[in-house]
Amino acid sequence: MPTMDKKGNAIAIGDFKTGYKIVDRSGINIMRDPYTEKPFVKFYAVKRAGSDVMNQEAIKIGVFG
């Protein structure tokens, strides 16, 4: 992948279906918070996901600007 500075722009073009994969992790973490807003109880939920480049030849990145 080409390097770019803060002022440059980049675009990715290619076949993302074969080149990139997004995976959902199983399970949801739920945290109970009874202290922040009395007399209410807050709940925070977190769902994790991951991704990775599977085929670098399927995606090309162009830097311009």
TrEMBL record:
InterPro entries referenced in this protein's UniProt entry, alphabetically: Phage_capsid, Phage_capsid-like_C
Compartment list: Virion
Domain of life: Bacteria
Main location: virion
Signal peptide positions (record): none
Residue span, Phage capsid-like C-terminal domain: 5-64
UniProt-recorded name of the protein: Phage capsid-like C-terminal domain-containing protein
Lineage: Bacteria, Pseudomonadati, Pseudomonadota, Alphaproteobacteria, Rickettsiales
